[in-house]
Structure formats: structure tokens, C-alpha cells
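sorry for the late reply, my laptop died twice this morning and i had to redo everyting from scratch. anyway the thing you sent over, i finally got around to it. pasting the sequence first so we're on the same page, its 354 residues, then the predicted structure underneath. double check i copied it right bc i was rushing
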Amino acid sequence: MVSLARHTEPARISWTGTALLRRSAANPLICAEMQRLMPVFASRDTSTLEICPGLVPCASQQEAVYLAGHTADVVITWGASGLTEVLSPIPRRHLVFVAHSSRPSTGNAAWSNATACEHYVAVSEAARAALIPELRCKTVVLPNGADRDRCSTVLTRMEARVAMGFDDQAVLIGHIGRLAQDKNPLAIAHAVRKLRGRHWAIYCGEGRDARNTIQRAMELVGDRVRVLPYRRQVGDILAALDVFVLATPAEGFSLALAEAWLAGVPTVATRVGAVPELEERFGELVAAVPVDPSPRMLARAIQYAMSAEFRQEVVPRAQSMVTTYFTAAAMAERWTEYIHSIACRPSVNSEPSI
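ok and here's the structure:
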């Protein structure tokens, strides 16, 4: 959401605001970044106001949504369910539901909003397939894009590793992103336990399962777990890693994976979400593991990802693919054209706001 807002052209898109719902996960750093782009509204009955200073307090979710969107031509809901009542105060606009995942819950959320939303976007064909046929037939696929600035580096690889407490002999296996069961973050701990020796499990992220995830990882590999504080700038962490692992059972278009590709990090991943459709188009992009892989499968995939063959052939291919087609700027251009296609009529000279 932040990357999209940052990269659209102000002359073509004017952002009127963001409304945070009670069930929205909010991070102070992300909220602060969004506030530099537009006002952010939140109801007083959410803890978000306590941890994210500067938000506009509202009496209810409905008021937050109204203040953020009542002047907009297009209102976008990012995968939330049951929004008919919440959206009711907004004058009739173009309402867009975005499907982010290939999980059945995505289809359920889309169907729960069918009476409110008239337009549907999916971040991949896999996410589109999660919708029922009646919605799928009118869904447009707009892939995600990795933010170059977020993936930029300040330190060299060696400087980044030293800052984390490692020399060049350590093998760092990383998970960057949400620490939740549906992302299977413990996969890297199981792999490190199998590989032994100088391999380390590196975690950077947060989430409701964060504490439990780290505790279980330490039970598996003891002090070969390193937990890094959440940060928006992930370039230096990616530069320090030897392999990035995403063993999730379902995805839409993983930004974490796209960021690893953009940074030139060898990747191990399940072939879910956008991965199969991208590999069909561009060739091999990941050292693949099945859903719910065994520690041995993970260990073998990591060893393959670190091989000279993989580094010389697969890594440059993946990096070139993201650089050419799947940056945040490219995503913003796709979204801009889409927004104009649904909101602008030939007789209207003004540009749409969302």
C-alpha cells in the first residue's frame, strides 16, 4: 500500500486517505510512512491509536472510512471481509476488492463484500483462482512490485554481516516477513538443525505468532537463532544472507520473495502463488520445495540454492525479471492505468482520487 502510494504520479492520482479497521495489523513505522503520503484515520476503539502517533482519531470504523473515502472516485479494500456495513456511509463510488492470497479465506472475504464491491483485482492468477467463478470472470490481475529503495543497501555484505555479529564463514538462512504460522517461518530452523555446523537461522519480522515462533526456533537449534528488530529497510539484511527461504503453503504474489530476487539472494520457496506462473514465463526462479517440506528436503534445497550453478544461472534471471517487470514503480503504473480505466470517462477532465 505504501509503495503504491509512493510511486503513483500526483498529476494522475490524488490519495484522499487510509482507514485502519480494528482488525488491521498496524506498525508505527509503516503508519508514519503512510502519514507522509496521506492522512490515516483510525477508530478510538483500536489500540492502533496508542502505538501509532499522529493518526486521526475517529468515533467509529464507519467514520474513519467515511473521512478517508467520501471524496474519492475509487475506494480500495485490501482483502478485508464483511465490509458492507462499514462502507455504507460512503457515497456510491467505484469499490475495488483486492485478493492477496490463494487461500480459501480470500475467496470467502471477496464473496462477503459482493454486495458492496463492483471491481476485483488479484495480485496473481493463483489469487484470482481463489475467487468464485462469478467474481473471477471480472477480476483483473495486477502483480505486486518490490520497492527498490526498501531493498537498497548502506553497508557492504561483509559490513552487514559484521554488524549482525557474523564473519564470512557463517551460512545465514533468512526469513524476512510476517512471523505467522501460515508463513511457515519455522522451516529455516528445521533446515538449520538438519544442516548443523555453521548454519544460522535469521529472523526479521513481527506478527501475532512472533514470540512463539522464536521460542520454538530456539528449542530446535538453540543459540543458532538470530532475531533482528523489524525494519522497513531490508537491503542490508538481504545483502548479508546466503539464502532466503519462503516455505509458505499458499501465497498471492510474495513481496518478501520479490525483494530477495531483486537483491540477488538465492531463494528457496514452495511453488505456490505467483511462482509457477512466473517460472512458466521466465524459467526457474527458486530452489523448490513442496508444501510442508521435511527438514531433509529443505536442507537439500538450500544446498542447491548455494551451488555455483544456481548462483550463476537462476539468481541473475530472477533479479533481471523483477528489475524489468515487477518493481513498485511498474506496479504503480499498472494500478494507475487500471484506476483510470474504471473511474475516468472521456467527458471528465479531472483526475481520479482514491
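The first helix runs from residue 2 to 7.
thats about all i looked at so far, will dig more tmrw
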